[in-house]
Amino acid sequence: GNVPPRSLSTILVLLCRLVGRATFQAACWNLVSLLLSSSLGFMVMNSLCKMISDSSFVSEVASLGALSITTEVGWGDRAVESLEFPWFVILRAYLSMCENGSVVQRSTILHSLWLLVQRRGQQLHVEWEWILNIVRQWYKLSMGENEVNAADVASFSGLIDEMEQLFSRKSYFGDISELHAFLQELLPLRGEKTLLTCLEYEAQCCVPPAENWSDRLVEVVDSRLIPNAPEAVISRVLDIFKEIVTYSEHMQVGEVLVGTVVPQLLRLYAHKDVSLAIKSISILIDLTRKTDGKHISTVVKAFLQIASEKLLGNEVRLAATAGLV
Questions:
Q1: DSSP H helical segments within the chain, as ranges?
Q2: ω before 209 within 30° of 0 (cis)?
Q3: Over 70: is that where the pLDDT of 309 sits?
Q4: Distance of alpha carbon 251 from alpha carbon 290, whole angstroms
Q5: How confident is the model at residue 128, as a pLDDT?
Q6: HSE-up of 201 (CA within 13 Å, CB side)?
Q7: Taking a C-beta distance cutoff of 8 angstroms, is the pair 233, 208 a contact?
Q8: Which of 136, 273, 304, 307 has CA 20 to 30 A from 296's CA?
Q9: Backbone angle region of 85, left / alpha / beta, with phi > 0 → left and psi within -120 to 50 → alpha
Q10: Environment class of residue 177 by beta-carbon count within 10 Å: exposed (0-12), middle (13-18) or buried (19+)?
Q11: Cα torsion for 301, 302, 304, 310, to the nearest 10°?
């Protein structure tokens, strides 16, 4: 039969309280499915989102039930594609609960986001703004606690992994600068893997003709080519140098790179990893082809310094000598 709209809220609160109980689960989901497929579908979702965003008028059990239902019918196993209810409306409600809710509620939201990004990551656009805000809020509130649930840590790590993979596959369609800013915050926690993701974004910003590319390049050099930097990071920075030297036709490149790249390469040529030393010398060789007479002497001096360094291996010294010739 028909459900009177004025009775809908009462019915939904009851469903949300019972949907997590095994005894009533099947019957609850059948009723939810019927409601969503009816003319009241949008009203049902809006009411559920209101229960989530302002959970003060319902019990925590009911609000958790609303979270479960919106997750399942939004992007879970019971997704109702025909309803086309905007995901960002659900996420907006999640953000409100994340800011004001309990640890359990925040944990449930985090697991829901991980599911969303895993299953629908490539379909997300405007939703990323809300997702990032929620994850930031969860991180701010939860990481300050004495003990964080191991399952939550795993979900958080998995969610960030998914976001980084989407970025690497060029399938992240949110504001990349905002993602980069958040990943920067996570570097102490996440380490080398996230550092390489940050570096990929920075590489896009410091290759001509990107805006302010030379300033961005100096920032990358100062922040990434530091003592004891991971070899993978050093190698990626060298790749950025090589890309700039090889493909750019800008006259400004020679001047900028001689001032920025050569001093850094002189720090790297004696690196314990011979392949990195050889790669840095190869970049110096390429740089000579892009450098005008005003700066060629700087590059020549670099080759002379490397070739005359007695403590270096023969392979490195020979490469420098070949570059000098």
A1: 5-18, 25-36, 41-53, 60-75, 87-100, 103-120, 127-142, 150-168, 176-190, 192-205, 213-224, 231-247, 252-268, 274-290, 293-307, 314-324
A2: yes
A3: no
A4: 8
A5: 98
A6: 19
A7: no
A8: 273
A9: beta
A10: exposed
A11: 140
Nearest to 132 by CA among 163, 101, 157, 103: 163
Q: Is 312 helix (H, G, I), strand (E, B) or coil?
A: coil
- The pTM for the full model equals 0.83
The pLDDT of residue 281 is 73
Does 282 have pLDDT greater than 90? no
CA dihedral 62, 63, 68, 71 (to 10 degrees): 150
Q: Spell out the SS3 assignment of 35-71.
A: HHCCCCHHHHHHHHHHHHHCHHHCCHHHHHHHHHHHH
Whole-number Å distance between alpha carbons of 284 and 257: 10
User: For residue 318, how many other CB atoms are within 10 A of its CB?
Assistant: 14
Region 142-149: mean pLDDT is 74
d(CA 63, CA 257): 58
Listed residue (255, 253, 267, 254) closest to 305, CA to CA: 267
Residues 131/124, Cβ–Cβ less than 8 Å: yes
